[in-house]
Automatic annotation (TrEMBL):
Extent of the signal sequence: 1-22
EC number: 6.3.2.17
Binding site for ATP: 354, 368
Superkingdom of this protein's organism: Eukaryota
Enzyme class: ligase
Protein name: Folylpolyglutamate synthase
GO molecular-function terms, A-Z: ATP binding; metal ion binding; tetrahydrofolylpolyglutamate synthase activity
Lineage: Eukaryota, Metazoa, Chordata, Craniata, Vertebrata
Source organism per UniProt: Equus caballus (Horse)
Gene of this entry: FPGS
Binding site for Mg(2+): 120, 191, 219
Cofactor annotation comment: A monovalent cation.
Compartment(s): Cytoplasm; Mitochondrion inner membrane; Mitochondrion matrix
Length: 578
């Protein structure tokens, strides 16, 4: 193990600690790993889950949270004025905010600018969250800044403070600010973690421009149970006199955004559709697939152009004539001809785990971390469109497989119902664990739940699928060979449920076992040593394995959770773990 990797592993031994979290540990999937480490008496590792609970308790007074983050910033050696030097583009939204940030960063990098990019969550390694010029920071840079920040915060602890060390997301946010300043980036694209008004990134006082991507229901226990309430939270990033842009939203949340902006004299603009910018010029090619990415690209173009304009850059695109917007009295953002830099930036954008396709021999993996109703709807449209445009094999059956998991307070039944029209031959469920053993699995593992708990959730998903399957059942539902009729309930690596389930569904205890069964050794990259004993012992698994081995083409959609997609990518793309 290299010295840098040894230090990186050591860095993960110590996580942000808090006297308020005596019964919790720092969950690796949403934070740093929770391996045993020296602790102060009465202190334990703090999880992102405990941070969210803390936010819920304090959300009536957002100043409490923002002031706490400002204090952490000061203790780390920075002042709010220092963040003004980063020329920040601040982006929130429910779906597409990460893709919007990726488009924006790539466009501005195509102008020769040095970019910083802070995003969440990570897919494979925590370093992905902090990027310089599109690349995750190195293990050396990560460990150096981790220990520097950790020791600085330890040295400045105040015994009278209710929270002596920041939770995971706050810690990484502080790290990102320090790294961007040290690396002297020309700009930083900062993605909001959750919400906006109460998010710890909202200590940013003077961003250059703000953006709001498509809104929908997510994190309802924290942000509110209506899209209007969520819009109020998202609009919390608006700043007086700072231009802000949003895409077309339903009338209710759009009106909330308008009112939030007007209350603080924030100029808010509605983005015209991408078609308006393409008119009279060549069609724009996007590096990210899916029709829904056009809305994200339209927002990114406005954010990038506004940033360039505010910083007096030349070559920002020739304006076209346009009609004023009448949508909730919001002015329409400029309609302009995208420059060659903008076109190249959109074309060259990469954002793993979002509408990503990996073609491996007879297998095609479709990876999309959609986890809300609206994003799963977009995922289904993308997947079905991709299947319509595929090259059909000359002979032999095609098999469609769903690999799904859902976490948090999402409604898995609602998400699975949206996936039914894809007519999968097999629905496979597993937890967000690459392996059953935690060894080498720290960045994917959530230490706040047990294996039994996550497996029971997967079995619940299977029950939902079985019920939906029966409701939708018809003699011609499947048009390719499926599992043998009348087979036993399922491949269960947990106690059997009393209710029968569809013969087309399986539950595995980890991602690796699920991929081994789906790929049947036919993926040229994913070649595990040997399948675990009993993987094909169940009749459904055995008959399905025969179908998969003989199929001319296998189309696998992985969705429901970005963490699931991350675990799959870790196994299918080993280079991402280097």
């Amino acid at each position: 193990m290299s010295r840098a990797r040894s230090h990186l592993r050591s860095a993960f031994l110590l996580a942000a600690v808090s006297p308020l979290s005596a019964t919790t540990r720092f969950g690796a999937r949403r934070g740093l790993s929770a391996w045993p480490a020296p602790q102060e008496p009465g202190m334990e590792y703090q999880t992102n889950a405990s941070y969210l609970e803390q936010v819920k308790r304090q959300r009536g007074d957002p100043q409490t949270q923002l002031e706490a983050m400002e204090l952490f910033l000061a203790r780390s050696g920075l002042q709010l004025e220092d963040l003004d030097q980063l020329n920040i583009i601040h982006v929130t939204g429910t779906k597409g905010k990460g893709s919007t940030c990726a488009f924006t960063e790539r466009i501005l990098r195509s102008y020769g600018l040095k970019t910083g990019f802070f995003s969440s969550p990570h897919l494979v390694q925590v370093r992905e969250r902090i990027r310089i010029n599109g690349q995750p920071i190195s293990p050396e840079l990560f460990t150096n800044h981790f220990w520097r920040l950790y020791h600085r915060l330890q040295e400045t602890k105040d015994g009278s403070s209710c929270v002596s060390m920041p939770a995971y997301f706050r810690f990484l946010t502080l790290m990102a600010f320090h790294i961007f300043l040290q690396e002297k980036v020309d700009l930083a694209v900062v993605e909001v973690g959750i919400g906006g008004a109460y998010d710890c990134t909202n200590i940013i006082r003077k961003p250059v421009v703000c953006g709001v991507s498509s809104l929908g229901l997510d994190h309802t226990s924290l942000l509110g149970d209506t899209v209007e309430k969520i819009a109020w939270q998202k609009g919390g990033i608006f700043k007086r006199g700072v231009p802000a842009f949003t895409v077309l939203q339903p009338d209710g949340p759009l009106a909330v955004l308008r009112d939030r902006a007007q209350q603080i004299s924030c100029p808010l603009y509605l983005c015209p559709p991408l078609e308006a910018l393409e008119e009279g010029g060549p069609p724009l090619t996007l590096g990210l697939e899916g029709e829904h990415q056009r809305s994200n690209a339209a927002l990114a173009l406005q954010l990038a152009r506004c940033w360039l304009q505010q910083k007096d850059h030349q070559g920002i695109g020739e304006l076209k004539a346009s009609q004023p917007s009448l949508q909730w009295q919001l002015p329409l953002a400029p309609v302009f001809q995208p420059t060659s830099h903008m076109q190249h930036g959109l074309r060259d954008t990469e954002w793993p785990g979002r509408t990503q396709v990996l073609r491996r021999g007879p297998l095609t993996w479709y990876l999309d971390g959609a986890h809300t109703v609206s994003s799963v709807q977009a995922c289904v449209r993308w997947f079905r469109q991709a299947l319509r445009g595929r090259d059909r094999p000359d002979s032999g059956p095609e098999v469609r497989v769903l690999l799904f998991n859902s976490t948090g307070d999402r409604d898995p039944a609602a998400l699975l119902k949206l996936l039914q029209p894809c007519q999968f031959h097999y629905a496979v469920f597993c937890p967000n664990l690459t392996e059953v053993s935690p060894t080498g699995n720290e960045d994917q593992q959530n230490f706040t739940v047990t294996l039994d708990q996550v497996l029971l959730r997967c079995l619940t998903h299977q029950q939902h699928w079985s019920r939906l399957d029966k409701e939708q059942a018809s003699p011609n539902l499947w048009n390719s060979p499926g599992p043998e009729p009348g087979g036993p309930a399922s491949l269960l690596l947990a106690p059997c449920l009393p209710h029968p389930v569809s013969t087309s569904s399986l539950v595995f205890s980890c991602i690796s076992h699920a991929l081994q069964w789906i790929s049947q050794g036919r993926d040229p990259v994913f070649q595990p040593p040997s399948p675990p004993r009993g993987l094909l012992a169940h009749p459904v698994a055995g008959s399905g394995a025969s179908v998969l081995r003989e199929a001319a083409a296998i189309h696998v959609l992985v969705t429901g959770s970005l963490h699931l997609v991350g675990g799959v990518l870790k196994l299918l793309e080993p280079s991402l773990s280097q």
